[in-house]
Amino acid sequence: MNPTRRILCAAGAALLLAGTAVHGETFPARPLELIVPFAAGNAPDAVARALAEGMSKDLGQQVVVVNRPGAGGAIAYKQVQAKKPDGYAMVLNSNSISTVYHSGLTPFDYSAFDPVARVTIELPVLALQASSPLNSLKDVLAHVKKNPGAFRVGSSGVGSHMHLTSVAFFGGQSAEVTQVAYPTTGHVAALMGGHIEAIVTLPGSVAPNVKGGALKVVGALASAREPVFPDVPTAKEQGYDFQSDLWRGVTVPKGTPPAVIARLEDAVRKTVGSAEFRQMGERMGFLPAFQGSAEFGRMMATEDVQIGKVMARAGLAKKAGQ
Which domains does the chain show, CATH number per domain? Predict the structure, then answer.
């Protein structure tokens, strides 16, 4: 290596150690915002606050969580998409970035943002009343096919990830069920009361009722077994090639400098890999699932195509020209 190149490499290494210099300042030079598309006190808010705490320590600047609920996440996505692409405004995105686009709530899709990193996954499950004679996904599907349309499956929110998971799973098996999407909550109470036969939900919603003996979980509609229900096999383990993880990640406005993205990605990686973050997930029902920027971007692109197809099947996709 010639002397000039050696000096340049050393300077570059020193810059990385000292921090990321952007437009004459070391990034970050002031507090950052992590905008959450949903209200305080729920699962995405818990993830955001655990993430912000760890990132604040690593970045040396406060990461402030700002809740911007409404329109299935569209309000927050629009706000962040319009921000200056300097890394100081981030959004905790999820599969909802695709649902709001395909339903026509935003004029842009996931590609309006630069990916920083995936943070967590949450694993949907199919739950029934404990007294049901159906004890597996095979049992459920056999029953549904014998009684088309009579089996009612609840979820929270029309067009929500749980609703679309139910549509995709049963639709993919040519099993006709009646989908009952409750506006926000109420699906668990409806199942407990016998108003519906099953629900697709996150494990935290039913764990107390399963522990109490009122409900049971017959399958994880996800890429892995749910730690809350370690004895319940996944759909794939039961013979069905299906998984529908709910993921959460961090993105920034398109055009954010690569060096800034790399600095944020590193802070996310260290936080998600920490014992504190893992312990928070065990309490709150999410799994640390770090993906770097490039891999996360590819995953969002693949998911967007799949979500568009499922929403079209459910009659929820905006039609061309509308």
Answer: 20-122+246-313 (3.40.190.150), 125-220 (3.40.190.10)
